Fold this protein.
Amino acid sequence: MNSSSKYFSRMLPLLAFTGVILSGCSSTTLAYKDTLMLAFVKGDDVDLSLQAIVQRPMPALYVRKDDNAKAMLALQEGSLGLQKWISADLALVVLQNGRLVKMLGFDEQQLQGQVVLQQDWLTKPLKLLHLADKSQLVSDWRSVQHQGVTSHITIVAIEDEQLAYFSHTINVIRVDEQVDFGSGDFVVNSFWFSAKNGMLLKSRQQPLPNWSVFELEYISDIAKNLSVIGKSNL
């Protein structure tokens, strides 16, 4: 079997899954097709204007995997902190309160689910966060050896910073968590929140040691806020 055949065979379940998603949404299928960017390719980043982002028919999320081009995903479903985002080439990202909990189409080693056993700090107001706050995470991966992986989350930094979007500067609070695995390996994930309203604007997450790093930017939320206030004090 050649490499293209192997790729297609890996994508069949995802193609079927995405077909189900889009079959009941014919009015938005064209918007998905025409406005989303590929998640697999390298090349130029997607770079839409503030006006173009605000006028999109559905919310958008920028996603970059390692050094790949920045892709744009559209919100397919969102409720009670759970968001499902899909790309033009059928990659799927599921976020729970901003945490990556499921991914399809980005790598052979698929993330099938993650659950925080104690209250996830991402559900708390920023003012209630403290250094050394802890929780426990259980992850399921496609491979047998990575089912029920237990890790421990510790907040290791809370810092004031600024982010720049559309020629504006946004005051943010960056929260870093260290995720320690039983193997002795660890990763550090970062989350950037608006200093004014606590909105999650960006994150950089590595679900597993020695795996890909994903940068996520909630570009529609950023654009809508900037378009309303016309200045940088999000």
Notes: The domain at 3-229 is CATH 2.40.360.10 (YmcC-like fold). Helices lie at 3-23, 26-35, 50-54, 219-229. The chain has a mean pLDDT of 78. The radius of gyration is 18 Å.
